[in-house]
Amino acid sequence: MGFAADEAPKAGYRRSAGSPRGEARRRELLECVTEDVAANGLVDFSLRRAARAAGTTHKVLLYHFDGVEDLLRQVVFKLRARRIDNAMAAAREASGHETLAARIRAVWPTLLNEESRLSRVLDQAIGLAMYDPERHSDLAREASRQYLPVLESLCPAHWSDRRRREVAEMILATLRGFLLERLTTGDAPGVAAGFEALIRMLEREEAAGG
Q: Which residues bind DNA (predicted)?
């Protein structure tokens, strides 16, 4: 997977942080670049490609962002937020969503059926973190920081903070594994069987009380 990092921020570039007008412009640029990445993926992502997508120059992007890796992190964050919003909407709209197991069952189809381009980009981001952890480990760490609080919020309110975190960690790791298995092997029946086992495990965890 190619990833250009030849445009490090230059000394002397002024940052737009703190200015309402500058912040609005930064959000506008970020939205343009995010849509480009959603459509075309992360392969050969660079500051110059991002500038073309935003209709500006790479120097303008360096005024608003701290280099190509900062821009990449913010793009991936926005795309993950989109995935989370879709999943939480499904959880809220599902009937019988009073249990954790039912909520996870409602969320799962959105992860399987979400726009393939979005899923591909987020998989590529995790791939970058695995391929070059020295540069891109934040892409994986920030994924957990985004997903875990959401999964904890789906757990029963009377559970302790520790128990919610433990179960959320287990759900996140298991669903990640299922998605990777489906992507790499195409074994949809096997993934479906594993998911049903996860649901039964969550039902037993809730039935245990506490």
A: 46-65
The domain in which residue 77 lies consists of 70-207
pLDDT, mean over the chain: 86
65 and 87 Cβ atoms separated by less than 8 Å? no
Question: Tokens for 54?
Answer: 């935003």
Residue type, 89: A
DSSP 46-92: -HHHHHHHHTS-HHHHHHHSSSHHHHHHHHHHHHHHHHHHHHHHHHH
Q: Please give the structure tokens belonging to residue 58.
A: 């790479």
**Is 114 a member of any domain?**
yes
pLDDT at 205: 94
Domains of the chain: total: 1
> Domain of 139: which CATH number?
1.10.357.10
Residue 14 pLDDT more than 70?
Answer: no
| Token pair in block for residue 18 | 């703190």
pTM: 0.78
User: How far apart are the C-alpha atoms of 41 and 34, rounded to whole Å?
Assistant: 10
In a domain, 26, yes or no: no
Q: What is d(CA 154, CA 156) in angstroms, rounded to the nearest whole number?
A: 7
